[in-house]
């Protein structure tokens, strides 16, 4: 059918740019709106605070994007971040605190390794057992939650050396470190998804795992790799959180979990897998942050801005629907 | 004209800028089996949807029903009231419900608040099943039935709903020979009861066997309606494609040295004691009924499953395959019969589907998979195989069956295989495009590739294979050379 395919062609050519365009537009619109409406929105202090707040949700959303593109989910991202933070904090306070910079590096490395291991565990179970990622990651999430609460007896660990807190509060050439960490991670992930065979395979697996396997792709390895990276990204979020609050507690950031899913879908990731891009996600996250900060400046409650996020998603979905249906 | 069940004149349909149907006329007699033939995209489906009330035609169309009614278009409700029903290829049954519940389902569409009585449903279902003269247990859940039995349920369902005109969309596509025969018999029985049937099928032999007349569409225009008596397959395919197809049996080339040898290969429950030798530059036809173990054997040679006994040798060396990655490394490629689910990742691009088998070679240096290398590879294969692609970034699902199959073949040729296994490579491919696919396959063999061609179409095998191995119930029942036999006797051997 020539019409159908020509319509599809027009559509397809624009789908990639469409999502980026939509997200850029939303960002510009929300930015413009709050510049006009919220006093002090453009102030250095506000911009800086946005740049410090965004990365936590941002890194967790990156950790969620990868499994979503592969047709799954990683519900354990927030608790993975907690466990990673706990590992680092515990090591600093009980074992390596006196070892100086090297001790700090080793502690951070260990925290990241624990996060990656949590992801690896999910990946192995998904790949070997073939259970649905929602179930597997839910199991791991509850496991990590219980384990963390058991080890910390429900309390937290606080008091990190100033050199570590730099990750949360420092800046390089005036740019806050957290946003740098986030943007670097986003750029690395974007590269990985677009320019490596594993990234390529993750898209294929997300659309049709069996056909990908028939094509000679080691789908188990792809799954294990992607969940490991997801765990690693969550652990980086855990480091930023630990550094910013100077403390870590199991359950910290728990409310971010479903918002990371929202952010991915807002950015046009396909709920059924196969499609999703990093750049629109970054732009979408920025819009969410702009809305939250702007409303805060206008004196609205934080809960109201979460309600606005939800409404935002519904509006964007509705606008996008006619395009999706035709394709 | 009292014997006209449905007549439609001046039917046109425009989607966007393209005229999908252009002033088509259609006439169906009472109790007739009519075939609606044409290549993909000729407007068949659109015509069916218009006659069934799904799409409204452009102004000017006239429908009549053998009485005095003449209307401009049919609403779905009116189509139902006049007993017009379509059985789509996917059958649209409720897999988790019982046969009886599926059959009486439409009663509850008309009257959703009506309480469901299982006893009544079972009784009503039984009556329809009896009328069909088939064996079906009303209590079985539909998901437990074979495709052929599900089709009977779908037919019973429309009969129960009072069907007088039934459109069947590709009803034989996933049936075995015997099941097809049963269906064709059933079709004749229904037409004897005064029910008119419109049959949409790619398989010309069936069309000619069961239909009284055939209506041919090409590019949205009516080519004509012809009696099937005296019609040949060649003539019909010429009407459908608008071009003469000159299919000639393959000139058997002297075959080269053995590439792949199977010795007593078995996989419990699937096939047993299969021995064969595949030579360089040869097309080995592997045939037999669906379920004879053809695909299962191919899966073992491709490393997807492991044999339980026997051995494989390649160039005389023993071959152990733990996965299909091992097979690909050894130069074995497999074009699956299930292009939709296993052959291609339908929603991803033509570029990605072509490159997926050779990512390791394209990722140079390691860790950098250049998109332009992917595009260059795809463009090269599009050129070499003559695939019709407007934009390789499009989802591969946007291509026609024949072009999709070219993408599948391309992605395997990219691995430079020595052994290429083609499992029913022309399923869902237009007649015109089939010849093109076989031209490619023959050329590959001429260039020295060893090819296993799996098919249950005797004609395809007879035309293209140098040697034929017939499987029956998992065992090799016969080995023969097409040159020593006729297409008809090969057909008989397969179905014996």
How many helical elements of chain A? Answer: 13
Helix content of chain B: 25-40%
Strand content of chain A: under 5%
Order of helices and strands of chain A: HHHHHEHEEHHHHEHHH
Largest sheet of chain B: 6 strands, mixed
Number of strands of chain A: 4
Distance between the termini of chain B: 44 Å
Low-confidence stretches of chain B: none
How many separate domains make up the residues of chain A? Answer: 1
Please give the share of residues in helix of chain A. over 70%
Annotated CATH architecture of the largest domain in chain B? 3-Layer(aba) Sandwich
Termini gap of chain A = 14 Å
Helix/sheet category of chain B? alpha/beta
Structural class by helix and strand composition of chain A: mainly alpha
Strand order in the sheet with the most strands of chain A = 1-4
User: If you average the pLDDT of chain B, what whole number results?
Assistant: 89
CATH class of chain A: Mainly Alpha
How would a crystallographer describe the biggest sheet of chain A? 2 strands, antiparallel
Strand content of chain B: 15-25%
The protein's oligomeric status is heterodimer
What does the model show?
The complex is a heterodimer of chains A (327) and B (496). By secondary structure, chain A is mainly alpha-helical. Chain A has one domain: Orthogonal Bundle (ABC transporter involved in vitamin B12 uptake, BtuC), CATH 1.10.3470. Chain A has 13 helices and 4 strands. Chain A has helices spanning 2-37, 44-69, 77-96, 100-129, 133-152, 162-169, 177-195, 197-207, 209-214, 219-245, 256-266, 278-297, 302-326, and strands spanning 156-158, 171-172, 175-176, 247-249. In chain A, the strands form 2 sheets. Chain A has a two-stranded antiparallel ribbon with strand order 1-4. A two-stranded antiparallel ribbon of chain A has the order 2-3. The longest helix of chain A is centred in the N-terminal third of the chain and has 36 residues, at 2-37. Chain A is globular. Chain B has helices at residues 44-51, 76-81, 99-110, 118-132, 147-160, 177-192, 204-210, 233-241, 294-301, 324-329, 339-343, 350-355, 359-362, 371-385, 401-413, 431-446, 458-464, 487-495; strands spanning 4-15, 18-29, 33-37, 62-64, 70-71, 84-87, 165-169, 196-200, 213-218, 221-227, 258-267, 271-279, 283-287, 309-314, 317-319, 332-335, 419-423, 450-454, 467-472, 475-480. Chain B has 496 residues and is an alpha/beta fold. In chain B, helix 3 packs across helix 4, helix 4 (118-132) packs across helix 5 (147-160) and helix 17 (458-464) packs across helix 18 (487-495). Chain B folds into 2 domains: 4-241, 3-Layer(aba) Sandwich (Rossmann fold), CATH 3.40.50.300; 258-495, Rossmann fold. Chain B has a 6-stranded mixed β-sheet with strand order 6-7-8-3-9-10, with helices on both faces. Chain B has a 6-stranded mixed β-sheet with strand order 16-17-18-13-19-20, sandwiched between helices. Chain B has 18 helices and 20 strands. Chain B is globular, with a radius of gyration of 25 Å. The two termini of chain B are 44 Å apart. Helix content of chain B is 35%, strand content 24%. The model of chain B has no long low-confidence stretch (mean pLDDT 89). The interface between A and B is large, with 34 and 42 residues.
